[in-house]
Amino acid sequence: MKTRSIVGGIVGALLLLPLAACGSDSDSGDGDGNVDKTDGIDVELADGGPERIVAQSTVAAALTQLGLGDRIVGTFGPLNGPDGGVDSQANGLDPATVTDVTGAGDYGDIDEEKVAELDPDLVITSSYLEGDYWYMAKNIHDSLAKRYDIVAVSYVDLSLTDQIDAVEELAGELGADLESTEVTEGKAAFEAAAATATTLGEQLTAAGKTVVAVSGTTDSYYVSNPAVSADLNYWVETLGLPIVVPDNPDPQGYFETLSWEESDKYNADLALYDDRQGDAGLAGLKAQPVFATITAAQNDAFTPWTSVYPPTYQEAATLLTRFTTAAQGLL
Questions:
Q1: How far apart are CA 81 and CA 222, in angstroms?
Q2: Domain with CATH 3.40.50.1980 in the chain
Q3: CA-to-CA distance for 230 and 159, rounded, in angstroms?
């Protein structure tokens, strides 16, 4: 079987390329399906299109929002959130309608027996780093690739909108109606939210207000770096929102790591807290005495930041609107 990396680009085309680190040869693989080519988009499809898809939960949620929920039979990765209900990374999925094939081992483990029982036509994941599959360890990937065609949507070096477009184009190749009311209204909602945020960014900057994106563990405080976060980067560079850029990010660039004693290094008027830990994450921030001295904490000005979410325009619009609603309270 074959693995394909789908890369969305500025020109809007999806390039179907072999992954150098994937352990499967795109030219010699024999897959059961045909290669469908339309307008420069190549996607490995089973005959007639895949009817049974196992997908990483965030991608699965995006495909569901784009109208392909009836094709998703199994998911791996976050599904149920820390505070009950569906995890924010999988918003739009109904956990009761899919089989969770996440393994019981370390990160990236997948229960291959459950996958076999589902008999999928296609397995889909994503990639944020070259050669690294989201919630799929390499040994698991190599094993699954012997039996199933795998599509990996690559987000490497893509902007927020390019990531969304890449998933939309994949969905279109899989049979989604991208002209449906739900999809077109989602795009319109995002454009409206972006316009509101642009105006707000000008107002916040003029008023000298700033925002900081943060998270923490028992021992460390993290200030996220907008430069390497697709959504925050878009918010800063395209919309002009005044989000703090840390001056000493860790080697991979994702955040600056500080001790809690240093958590007042970046004062800000609003704190975006990573919601992957649920209410416990916010409670942990509020319990830190030094962090409690920054303006946002003193004014109880917190709003959740969903750092990983289904890449659709509707989801991006919803989360951007949540932020602008909170930030408008600073004016």
A1: 21
A2: 3-178, 183-330
A3: 6
Provide the percentage of residues in the chain whose pLDDT is more than 90: 77
d(CA 165, CA 173): 12
Which two structure tokens, joined as six digits, stand for 331? 């004016």
Selection from 72, 41, 69, 71 nearest residue 166 by Cα: 41
Q: What does the pLDDT read at residue 28? A: 32
Architecture of the domain made up of 3-178 = 3-Layer(aba) Sandwich (3.40)
User: Structure tokens of 90?
Assistant: 């999988």
pTM: 0.86
CA 54 to chain centre: 17
Say if strands 270-274 and 302-305 run parallel, antiparallel, or are unpaired. Answer: parallel
B/e letters for 70-108, b = 16+ CB within 10 Å, e = fewer, are: ebbbbbbbbbebeeeebbbbbbbbebeebbbbbbeeeeb
Q: In this predicted model, what pLDDT tens digit does every residue of 94-135 receive, in sequence order?
A: 999 999 999 999 999 999 999 999 999 999 999 988 888 999
CATH of domain 183-330: 3.40.50.1980
